[in-house]
Automatic annotation (TrEMBL):
Highest taxon listed in the record's lineage: Bacteria
PANTHER family: HTH-TYPE TRANSCRIPTIONAL REGULATOR SRLR-RELATED, TRANSCRIPTIONAL REGULATOR, DEOR FAMILY
One Pfam family here: DeoRC
An example molecular function term from Gene Ontology annotations: DNA binding
SUPFAM superfamilies recorded: NagB/RpiA/CoA transferase-like, Winged helix' DNA-binding domain
The keyword Signal is assigned to this record: no
Domain HTH deoR-type: 3-58
Keywords (A to Z) from UniProt: DNA-binding, Transcription, Transcription regulation
Protein name from the UniProt record: DeoR/GlpR family DNA-binding transcription regulator
Source organism of the structure: Clostridium weizhouense
Length: 248
């Protein structure tokens, strides 16, 4: 198979699925792993896709519109998420009533929580388990369990949220922009995020630089509704922004 043919097939698979693994491309193209990795490097350098550990995803705005499985999202921007989560956890104090949104970066935050005299409400099954393992008082919201993000979502979840008031909330997002605010692909998840963010005295959006200046399908909050914690920023946002790095 000619090189250009491989490129076309790789991009077709990516446009169809949003993400593709090297192992799958080896089978589809009947090519060696080294050939596939070389192809992905070239397409990445051309700006046609974004390489990740073990494969590739759509780049730019198209990526923000996809709701990737949790195991996929965990492989993206690992070091950046680590630093963001570590800083976010340092903001938690004993006595806090915390809302912890579903997401991979918010999940990383749990590892860095030092305080035990706090209460956490979450819509993530995995988060709840990790919190209990750290002997942190935990409540999980009721509602529909969404397979891709492992989050509890929907109208029942929104109603459940209305009895709580939070001192701090930590949220994930698929996109951030001054004009469209904080956005996510799924309307049911957006409903939950929107209600939770309204019930927080302080709200923080945990987002690596790949989420900046991206717009997904549904807005769940205006830019002023939260403080952004990110690893690298090159734009002025109409809210407070905390930029973290390994030297912090």
């Amino acid at each position: 198979m000619f090189t250009e043919e491989r490129y076309n097939i790789i991009l077709q698979e990516l446009n169809s699925k949003g993400i593709i693994a090297v192992a799958d491309l080896v089978k589809i193209l009947n090519a060696s792993e080294s050939t596939i990795r070389r192809d992905l490097n070239i397409l990445h350098n051309k700006g046609l896709l974004k390489k990740i550990h073990g494969g590739a995803i759509l780049n730019g705005e198209r990526a923000s519109k996809h709701d990737y499985m949790v195991n996929i999202r965990k492989s993206l921007n690992i070091n950046e998420k680590f630093e963001i989560a570590k800083y976010a956890a340092s903001l938690i104090k004993n006595g806090d009533m915390i809302y912890l949104d579903a997401g991979t970066t918010t999940g990383e935050l749990i590892e860095f929580i030092k305080e035990r005299e706090i209460t956490v409400v979450t819509n993530a099954i995995v988060h709840a388990k990790k919190l209990l393992e750290k002997n942190i008082k935990t409540f999980i919201l009721g509602g529909e369990l969404k397979a891709t993000t492992e989050a509890v979502v929907g109208p029942i979840t929104v109603e459940d949220l209305k009895k709580y008031n939070f001192s701090k909330g930590f949220f994930g997002t698929n996109g951030i922009s001054n004009e469209k605010g904080y956005t996510t692909p799924d309307v049911n998840e957006a409903m939950v995020k929107a209600e939770a963010i309204k019930r927080c005295n302080e709200a923080f959006i945990l987002a690596d630089e790949s989420k900046l200046e991206q717009v997904s399908f549904i807005t769940f909050g205006e830019i002023k509704d939260a403080v952004i914690i990110t690893n690298k920023i090159n734009i002025k946002y109409d809210t407070n922004v905390i930029e973290v790095n390994k030297n912090d």
